[in-house]
Structures are given as structure tokens and as C-alpha cells.
Inverse folding.
């Protein structure tokens, strides 16, 4: 019986990365591997340079805040008790493989991970975005500064505990002839009504 492409990739990863893998899961037709943050750079270089893997391209990377998630709510495998993760999306053109790599920062107050810029230079602005929106610090990044919010912005707007209305608002003051910050004047409100559907709604009873 021949192995599927994902099974072949999974076995290849297990053979090459061995004990560097924390977990391997399959979901939505793609593999996700989890690695320890201390092994991140070695794993990433191996994924790029090993001829059986050849993940030449970093398509994207994104931050995840698991603040309001419990272990039982994660559908793609057990997770650690850490709050912040970064997920890397890789592509191997030579083998036509896609792969997700996830790693967690062990420090919730100041999440820190190694930068992968030296492996994939395209990570530069992606890492700046995760730094800006989640507050993840990337060791070795040559120019780690905000990229979407302004330089005076306080906080990280994609964190689960960041208020939906923000902390301050910005406007132009014609008297001072400059942009000023002031406390948020918008009162919090629910913008989505709660929807209650009957059991078996839309299906056969």
C-alpha cells in the first residue's frame, strides 16, 4: 500500500528532525509541526537546506495569542501552557509540499523568539508586524520597530486583553495646529446581536 504525500512528508520530517519535533498533526490537508523555541533556527535551516525537504520559501508568519483558549479547545493537538505562539507557513517548490511550523515563547510578559531573517530575508516585515501587533520580540532582527501603528502607539492591538476601542484616540487640533492624543471618547457597546438558533437548525430533524 503506497503512502499519501502527507504521510510521506510526515515520515520524512520524523526521520530528519527526530527528537527536535514536539508534535506533528494533520489538519485541513496540511501538516503542522511544533518545535521548541530553542531549536527553532536549527529546524528552520534544516527544513530549507535538506534536499529531501527543500522548503525554499517562507510564505508568511503570524502571531497567535492563546490567552482565552483552554487545552480542550485546541483542535490541532495539545498545546503547551504558553500564551504566545508564532506560526510559519513554508513552501517547497521542488517537492510541492506545504508545511506549518509552530513554536511558543515561554515568557508571557515579554515573549521572545529568534529571528529567521538570516534563513529567509522576507521574514523582515512579517516579524515587524508580529512585534507591532502582539509584542513578540525577535532576537537578531536588524530593525525591529512598529510597522502598522504609529511610533507613539502604546500596547499591542492584536492581544486578546487589548480593549476593542483602544486606549487613546488621535485627532488634529486646529488651535494647536498639530495631531494630539486624547482619551477614547467612544463608549463600549455590542455591535453584534446574540443569535440563538433552534437545535438542528438548517438540518434534518
Amino acid at each position: 500500500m503506497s503512502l499519501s504525500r502527507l504521510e510521506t512528508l510526515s515520515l520524512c520530517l520524523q526521520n530528519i528532525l527526530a527528537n527536535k519535533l514536539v508534535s506533528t498533526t494533520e489538519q485541513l490537508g496540511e501538516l503542522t509541526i511544533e518545535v521548541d523555541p530553542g531549536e527553532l533556527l536549527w529546524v528552520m535551516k534544516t527544513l530549507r537546506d535538506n534536499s529531501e525537504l527543500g522548503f525554499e520559501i517562507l510564505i508568511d508568519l503570524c502571531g497567535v495569542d492563546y490567552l482565552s483558549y483552554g487545552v480542550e479547545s485546541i483542535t490541532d493537538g495539545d498545546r503547551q501552557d504558553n500564551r504566545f505562539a508564532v506560526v510559519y507557513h513554508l513552501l517547497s517548490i521542488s517537492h510541492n509540499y506545504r508545511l506549518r511550523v509552530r513554536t511558543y515563547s515561554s515568557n508571557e510578559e515579554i515573549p521572545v523568539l529568534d529571528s529567521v531573517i538570516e534563513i529567509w530575508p522576507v521574514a523582515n516585515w512579517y516579524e515587524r508586524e508580529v512585534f507591532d501587533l502582539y509584542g513578540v520580540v525577535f532576537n537578531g532582527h536588524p530593525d525591529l520597530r512598529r510597522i502598522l501603528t504609529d511610533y507613539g502607539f502604546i500596547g499591542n492591538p492584536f492581544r486578546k486583553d487589548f480593549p476593542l476601542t483602544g486606549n487613546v484616540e488621535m485627532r488634529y487640533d486646529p488651535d494647536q495646529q498639530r495631531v494630539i492624543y486624547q482619551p477614547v471618547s467612544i463608549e463600549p457597546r455590542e455591535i453584534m446581536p446574540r443569535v440563538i438558533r433552534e437545535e438542528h437548525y438548517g438540518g434534518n430533524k
